[in-house]
Amino acid sequence: MAAADVDDVVGQDHVVRHAEKRDHPGRIAHAYLFVGRAHGQNFDRAHLREGAHCTGGPKADFDVNDPACLSIAEGSHLDVIEIDGASNNSVDNIRDLRETAQYAPAQGKFKVYIIDEVHQLSASAFNALLKTLEEPPPHVKFIFATTEPQKVLPTIVSRCQRFDLKPIPNELIVERLKKIAKDEKIKITEPALACIARLADGGMRDAQSIFDQMISFCGAEISEPDVLDVYGLVAAEKFPRSPPRSPRATTRKS
Q1: What are 151-202's pLDDT values in tens digits?
Q2: From CA 62, how far away is CA 4, in angstroms rounded?
Q3: 222 in Cβ contact with 212 (< 8 Å)
Q4: How far is Cα 17 from Cα 40, in angstroms, rounded to an integer?
Q5: Per residue, what are the HEC states of the chain?
Q6: Global pTM?
Q7: Cβ atoms within 10 A of the Cβ of 122, count?
Q8: Strands 161-164 and 31-35, sheet pairing
Q9: How buried is residue 93: exposed, middle or buried, by Cβ count under 10 Å (0-12/13-18/19+)?
Q10: Are 66 and 96 a contacting pair, CB within 8 Å?
Q11: How many Å apart are CA 98 and CA 75, to the nearest integer?
């Protein structure tokens, strides 16, 4: 996995503006909440954790080849702890987190805890987490991600900087896939790109996964019939159109 570059984020301008302004410790909040279905969560979490730990940081315009950033991208940095909220949702799991959070960072300036699907924590786990958020150690930062913010304890949400990630327009997905195709020397038609964008339903990560799957099936040349065949779809131009509505007949009163 490559380190995150702010130029790689698509369709989330409000998050990019925040990232570009976050260039010293005072501008890094102690907790962030990202809401959305894979519309940019991976980039946003990566950019925060890498920007916090880069050499000479925290800063937004870090070098993606910085050793600290590369170690985070590879999952070997000791101060970045990623937790799956679905399988680590008990109060004991959060108590363990609270205990380890007290220790100083081993490699960088901060310890960054990332909890994915945070809404799946139990009520008792949320209450245990709230105690840490109320008085967080200065060296600890939290990044939460969820697709169901209504299930997150309101007192947790109120202590986070919240970013609602928007579905990415199809045309932006197509433009990004074009760039990837050019870099990877893949020949893909415009209708095939449009079809993948429709399938992705606003998610760039989903679009890239579909694109990767098509490459594995088709090799270096991909057409719309290939995508339609793999996913059992119908071409957009073959969707039946509703007949035009005829104007209502009017009766005149004699």
Answers
A1: 999 999 999 988 888 888 899 899 989 999 999 999 999 999 999 999 988 8
A2: 9
A3: no
A4: 14
A5: CCCCCHHHCCCCHHHHHHHHHCCCHHHCCCEEEEECCCCCHHHHHHHHHHHHHCCCCCCCCCCCCCHHHHHHHCCCCCCEEEEECCCCCCHHHHHHHHHHHCCCCCCCCCEEEEEECHHHCCHHHHHHHHHHHHCCCCCEEEEEEECCHHHCCHHHHCCCEEEECCCCCHHHHHHHHHHHHHHHCCEECHHHHHHHHHHHCCCHHHHHHHHHHHHHHHCCEECHHHHHHHHCCCCHHHCCCCCCCCCCCCCCCC
A6: 0.66
A7: 14
A8: parallel
A9: buried
A10: no
A11: 21
Query: Two tokens at 147?
Result: 């697709």
* Nearest alpha-carbon partner for 41 in 143, 156, 152, 178: 143
Which residues, at least 6 apart from 164, have a Cβ–Cβ distance to it below 8 Å? 35, 36
Query: Which residue in 121, 214, 36 sits closest to 44, CA to CA?
Result: 36
As given in the structure block, the two tokens for residue 86 are: 């679905």
Length reported for the chain: 254
**Encoded amino acid at 228, one letter:** L
C-beta of residue 200 within 8 angstroms of C-beta of residue 206? yes
128: which 2 tokens?
């245990």
